[in-house]
TrEMBL record, chain A:
Pfam families: STAS. This is Anti-sigma factor antagonist. It comes from the Bacteria. Residues 2-116 form the STAS domain.
Amino acid sequence: MFTYEIIQEESKSIVKINGDLDIDVTEIMQDEITPALMERQDIEFDFSNVPFVDSSGIGLLMTLINELREAGSQVTITKVSQEVMYVFSLLQLPEILGREIFVDLKRDFEPVSDTN
Amino acid sequence: MERKIVSKGKTIKQAVSIALDLLNAKKDEADIEIIEHEKRGFLGLGSKPAVVRVTVRNKDNREGVAESLSSVEALKQAAESLDFPEDFPSLSDTPDSAAPEAEHDLSGMVWVSEGSIFCKDAPDKYPMVSPRKGVKLFKNGELVKKTVIVFEKDVLHVELADEIVEPKWEVTVSQDGMAAFLKVIPGTRIFRRLKDKLPSQFVELEVTESKDFIVIDIDRILDRLKELEIVHGVDFSEIARACTSEAEGTFVIARGTPPTPGKHGYFQPTQEVEVKKGLKHREDGTIDYREIQQFPSVERGQVLGVVQPPTQGVPGISVTNELVLSPEVYPLSIIEGKGVVLVEDGTKAVATASGHPEISVKGHVAKISVIPKLILNKDIDIQTGNIHYVGDVEILGSVQDGMLVEAHGNILVRENINRAKVFAGKAIIVQNNVISSEVAAGKNNHLKADLSLILSDLLGKMKNMVGAIQQLSSVSAFKVSSFTRTGLGPLLKILYDGKYKSFLPLTKTLINKIQSGKDALDEKWFELAERMQKGFVNVNFSEFRTVEDIQQVIKMAEELYHSVCETDDDICFIKASIAHNSEIYSSGDISIEKGIYNSKLHAGGCIEVDGFVRGGEIYASKVVKIAEAGARGGIATKISVPKNGTIRIGLAIEDTVIQVGNKTHTFTVRTSNVYARLNESGELIIA
């Protein structure tokens, strides 16, 4: 079951996501989370409780982040599990969204990439 | 007197005891001189007996007498005084036979006879011997290196070792079992003997060598063949030759019977189907334009040919008596193309339309079609309109001002092309002139070349994508199960955002290219374009559900890629009599009979002009051959080939420019027999 909560800490909004980020999240993401976060300045997604992702879920996340950025928000993603981070890096999310978004990402972390 | 005797025996001991017996003396009464040690030899060959000289000291009172006798006489006496059986083997070994015939005084002399050194003391002369290099002379057991004086009492011995190098051999069988080889390195036996020397005061000791080859025992070879189970096609005379060979070598001592290859099934046309490149020449060498029938054609109902079944080969036998199968033969399967129907269980191809038969064989599959032929028995002008045709076109007249003729097959123009455009998928033959026109053969190959370029790029990217998806699917945090609901679309979208940014535009380019060439490409291409459109381009509704779907597209693309890589350049050519002020493109060869005025020619193969080139640009990827190039009026004439191409010009007039690779040359004087190419260091050679 997918749930989320938004915690307001001073100027920062922390979005705690609980559950798999997958195709089933589409409606909640589009109808609830996106409008709720619009016009917030500093947004942090807490991924500590996201065990699984799929490509639709990642697609939704990418769309959301791009929309929030267009609206002028600062977005970060934190506490990503190692496995999920591996998926992200295979899909080059740090390259697509910018490495600074993954604040936990150590400087020496090299994303896994195959030859292209 | 002293009595002496030279005696032989198997060993020194035996030789001495024979001598003492003969002299009737005891060992302590005699001086024993070993002349030669015994030699064992090899297999009884080259063995030598031991030779000793035994002298009995002062046994009687005839000493004084004996001294005045020559040694020969003394020994004769000695022998006579003995009970000497006539047939005793050592008789011939007594010094009387070994000593030289010469009856002159031997005192102070030394000589060599039958391998032994003899000498005769003299009060006023000292016989001397000198070992030559390589001769090991021992005097009384001591090695002598320089010239020495010898006395009769000295024990002289020369160490002479025979040398035996055993032959080496090896039997091997070739990998395919079709031949057995015997490699031999012959063995040798070198005999060394002291060279005979006539009596002289000074003798140089020399050694003579004689060399024998050792014959290899054939039985051992035959045993080895048995061990290796080599039984078929054994050549015994060759084995014998190998065994007695005096030179190192490898002999083929057995040959298998190779399999006779069969023949694959094939299509036997009932008539000529190949497009003939050359114009027909009359026997006197002139060209018969009226009798030209360059593009073979068939009528409706005509039998195109018969499918011949494969014929099996005959198996062979290896040297180890194993059956060696001949390569497998395959039947030819026939695909009915347009205008062709197969009858009699698919063994006969019959034309259902008239036109030009086309047989394309790929592997064990042949596609037979009849390309329809359009015959226009007059000029192409405003009245006939432009011609677009899928098959061959034959125009009995000319192509006139501003008209366009386009055909997928061959185009034959019996007269001229005047200010017009003529494009063919294959060959173009213009029996007369091309004037102020544009003519191109095999332009589709342009498209195909483009397609192959894009495809190879896309193929690499698709394969990488498959790899990436497979890798992703192996990560446990990634929900593969969602693909069954969403397909690969969402994932592809992310990939396009990442490292596959160029994939989508490239795919779209490919699809557009395919659609632009819709007349020239076969339906497989459109199938590919559709699959790629629905799978990759319409990413929100992508048809791809699994990686296998992409792999199918890759397979399809690979097949098409290979098909475009096989060039059809040899079926594309242009032939004309004269080109004037025109542009001529051929993906294969261009050949012009009489001459070219101020025209631009481009050939993927060779350009041959039997006549002249006056002005214009000539480019061929391989070879340009021109009888005469250049213009007196000063119109620029430029002939170029790539760096590995060659240019031959019978006569190059001044100001003609040639270019090979990036090296150019302008003729300042008339030059005959030009042959231009680059040498290995990239310099332009004109000779």
